Structure formats: C-alpha cells, structure tokens
Task: structure prediction
Amino acid sequence: MTKILAIETSCDETACAVVEDGYQILSNVVSSQINVHTLYGGVVPEVASRIHVENISAVIQEAVVSAGVSMDDIDAIAYTQGPGLIGSLHVGVQAAKTLAWQFHKPLVPVHHLTGHIYANRFVSELEFPLMALVVSGGHTELVWMKNDWDFKVIGTTRDDAIGEAYDKVARVLGLGYPGGPVMDRIAKEGKPHYKLPVPKTSSQYDFSFSGLKTAVLQMTEREKKAGNEVIPADVAYAFQETALGSMTDKTVAAVREYQPKMLVLAGGVAANSRLRALITEKMEKVPGTRLIIPPMYCCTDNAAMIGAAGYVAYRHGCFGTMDAAADPALEMPGEI
Ligand code: KG4
Ligand code: ZN
Result:
C-alpha cells in the first residue's frame, strides 16, 4: 500500500488529501476561497496567495487527522507544481518541501491537468490507449494517452478556455463568479430563442471560444439598444448549446479517428450537466470506446486528484528535488 499526501493550491482552493494506491481516498479537504473572490467578480491572485498562506497548515493537519494516519505512514508528498497562479502555486510548493524535509519523504511534483485526468481512477481503472477531454477555467485540451503516464496534446484552445468563457459570459449577464455552475442551472429553463455563431478553427481538434463570448456581448447590447429584455436563461442556453455542441463534436471526431479504449472527461467544466448528457448521448453511437465521467466531488480543483496522479508519477520514479520551484506555465510530461 502506498500512501501519498497531496497538496493543491494552483488557483483559489487550498486543498490537501491522503490517497492510497492512487484510487482510495482516505481524506480530501478543500478550503474554497470563492466567497472572497466573488466580491471582486473573479480570482484576485494576490488575495488568493495570502489566503493560501493563512489556511494551508490547518488544511494539511485536517487531511492527516481525518485520514486516520500519522506522517510515518506517508510514503511521499505530491504537490501541484503548475500550471496556475505563481503566488498560489508557491505556497503549496513551500508547504510540500517543508513536509518532505521535516519528515524525510520523497517529493513528487505533479502537473495540474494530469491530476484532473487521473481523478477518473476514483471511478474506474484506466485503460489505454485513452483520450481525455480536459475542460477547466484555464484549459481546454484533447489529450491522447497511448500508455499510462504518457501525454500528447492533440487539440487545444486558440484563445479562451471553456471555463473562462463560461465565467466571462456569466459576468456579461451579471450572474457573478464563478459563472459555470449558475449558467448550467439557469440554462435548464432556457429556450432556443437566440442564435450564436458556431466557433471555427483552422485545425480540426483545436477549440476557440473568444468569438462566441464576443458574439454574446454584441447580441445582448443589440437587444438592449432595441429596447428588448435580455433573458439570461435563454442566453445561457444558446451559449451552452453552441459551445458544448461544437466541443463534443470535435471530441467524438477525435475518438473515431484515434479509437481509444476509453474517453474520460476532466476538469471543472466536467461538472456541467449538459456536457455530461451531451457527451453520453453522442458516445452511445461510438462502439468500442467506454466513456468515463468523474464524480462531481472531484471535477473542480481538489488534492485527491493530485494524489491519484502523484501515485502514478511515484511509480514511474518521477521525483522532485528541494530546489524545485513553482512553474506557472508547466508543460505536460512528455510535451517538452
Ligand atoms: O478545474 P477547475 O476547478 O479550475 C481550473 O483548473 O481552472 O475549473 C474551474 C472552472 C470555472 O471556470 C468554473 O466556472 C467551471 O470550471 N465550472 C463549470 C461548472 N462548474 C465549474 N462550468 C460549467 N458548468 C458547471 N457546472
Ligand atoms: Zn483545475
């Protein structure tokens, strides 16, 4: 049995977890800062790092205590090295190094997106080759994994990430931060009233959401000028159908070409109910590829997923050193 203590502080969640053998969660503590950032309409990096500093010790202690383990039982300390906000990442890196030094444990640096992908191990053993659709506030990527711990990005966003687009459209509609969950909820009541342009990219598996976001802004301004009431639920509906429709079409096309054994969803936007329904519906028509959707509790940022990926990195001998630093633009392993 390998027990990994994992730390995640890449954005606005201070999180620590203890995970056994990469799939058994012994504890998973997430302290969210959303209440504070909501006041500013988005994450304020300087504020985020200060709150991480205030909370990190208590979060680590709670994760160890509620897992029912002592530091002697821990085999390695995994932490998110990047990508993310530099100040936020730095707090987690320093905490991990301190624990590794004090308790003589190996360090395992983890790429945040590998964490989102390996969160699917809480649902099922992963089978390779595998395709992952990683959709979060900072990323929209199609990742091809021929083997375990082998990553190749075959599609990415040309501009905004899908979660970022959700948050920006929500801001236009005055729905607050983070926008994704509210848009998801109100779109259920929405009607097909507005029409938005389908995003186009020159490369088959790349994504683009910035044009769509601008189209929403222009459309709402046009409606207001014409004296028409803008109906947020209908705008959310139109945005979702357009963005998720084209994103899932591209994903299914990639699955048909690459023929993986599994397609996994990953990242905060994987919590979206319409995305979950749409991809399930489309994948039913694709024989030979099993669809895995992560549980709601591990879609948005958490440390259990870093423990899941950290375990695989540990098994592959990917250890860090005491002079490692946070890397806000870290590339996925194998992409350098
Ligand atoms: O993975 P995550 O927690 O943080 C990053 O790594 O970025 O993802 C956060 C993003 C935010 O943009 C948030 O609006 C979006 O995930 N999100 C959603 C939903 N829940 C969270 N987007 C759409 N529908 C949701 N239900
Ligand atoms: Zn994330």
The chain is about 40% helix and 20% strand. The radius of gyration is 20 Å. Residues 80 and 110 are 5 Å apart (CA to CA).
